[in-house]
Amino acid sequence: MANKLNILCLVTDAYGGTGGIALYNRDVIETLCGDNQIAKVVAIPRVISAPIEPTPENLEFDLSGLGGVTDYLRAIWRQIRSGKRFDMVYCAHVNLIPAAYLAAKWLGVPWVLCLYGIEGWTPSPRYLSSKWAAKANLVISLSGVTQERFLSWCRISPDKCLVVPNAVHLEDFALLEKDTELAARYGLTDRKVIMTLGRLDPSEQAKGFDRVVELLPELQHSIPNLAYLIVGKGGDKPRIEAIAKANGTSDSVVFAGFVSESDKPRYYGLADAYVMPSTIEGFGFVYIEAMACGLPVVGSSIDGSREALREGALGTLVDPFDPKALKEAVLAALKQPKAIPAGLDYFSYDNFKQRFMSAINIVMAKN
Questions:
Q1: 40 and 158 together in one domain
Q2: What is the CA radius of gyration of the chain?
């Protein structure tokens, strides 16, 4: 790699995006832009849903593909035909596989696919995405669970698959005192609080909001002033509200809605423990954020959550379908003092950069 590299990134969202995928994509782009082997990165997003954050100097963030599939494909074609030299294509979602594969084939360069979670656990309903996934020069998965399930159906060599988990920017989080104004706003002053952050997705129902609400009356036998703070938005809210109404805990279940990335630490600071008994979590980045704010964490033992909790070294793992075990884990977590766990720096951004660029160097060395 004597010459510096130019990378074409096809992403769902990144700058101006919300959620874990956008965060991961921003970390990928900034890692590439900050590496001395990389001259320029061109990233083409499919959607923008929030204000666009400052971008690296050597990033061209091409917004010409936001109008839909046709506009997106045209944006890719314009970049290919622009005369710029590209040395690799990075594909940030299975839905973008056909575009990434054809772009890489036209350019005569390798391409890398990234898998976040359940979208890679089974074949894609999009025929070409499933057919061409095996043609990637490298597949990066956020967790070993996702990599294993991907390999169960995709005919690609395991030697072409690597795990690069999420990064946490530790400087953005801290063990904070409870924000009195925020606590008063949500009626959480002088209450013990457990918290879950995530999308209330009616199609997945996978975060475990309902399991926590169903357990709340039993938890309140031991801790009468206990409240459950749900941070996030989505169409499953009415179902969860109905569960709370049916078991008499409506006044103890607080829906805070969507919060910005910058406000997250304040909301984590309201809680005494983070609880997410999920079932199909690909990794569980929110666990890392919660731990970076000093919260004792209870997570799932049956999905990618166990990797975010380092197989129980950083938090408590429990079967999400075992109410008794979940209750005991939550009560135990609420007895623990807040503290940032030793070993959380495994997920530091510096370690992420090293892992990610090691993966990219493997690809480029073979091509």
A1: yes
A2: 21
One domain, residues 354 and 298 = no
pTM, entire model: 0.92
198: left (phi over 0), alpha (psi -120 to 50) or beta: left
**Edge to edge, what strands does the sheet with 38-45 contain?**
59-61, 38-45, 5-11, 88-91, 111-115, 138-141, 161-163
Contact at 8 Å (CB) between 38 and 357?
no
Does residue 318 share a domain with residue 229? Answer: yes
**Degrees, nearest 5: CA angle 80-139-289:** 105
Q: Let me know whether 127 and 245 are in one domain.
A: no
Structure tokens at 246: 């049916």
**126-183 pLDDT tens trace:** 999 999 999 999 999 999 999 999 999 999 999 999 999 999 999 999 998 899 999 9
User: How many separate domains does the chain show?
Assistant: 2
Q: Are 103 and 22 contained in the same domain?
A: yes
Is the domain of 237 the same as that of 271? yes
Here the tokens at position 22 are 């956008």
Reduced to 3 states, what is the DSSP secondary structure of residue 360?
Answer: helix
Q: Residue 335 belongs to what H/E stretch?
A: helix 323-335
Q: Is the torsion defined by CA of 147, 148, 151, 152 positive or negative?
A: negative
Q: For strand 226-231 and strand 297-300, is the pairing parallel, antiparallel, or unpaired?
A: unpaired
Q: Using CA atoms, how far apart are residues 319 and 326, in angstroms rounded to an integer?
A: 7
The CATH number of the domain holding residue 107 is 3.40.50.2000
Tell me: the pLDDT tens digits for 239-264? 999 999 999 999 999 999 999 888 99
Distance CA 77, CA 73 (A): 6
In a shared domain, residues 136 and 274: no
- Do 178 and 154 lie in one domain? The reply is no
Domain that residue 134 falls in: 5-167+348-365
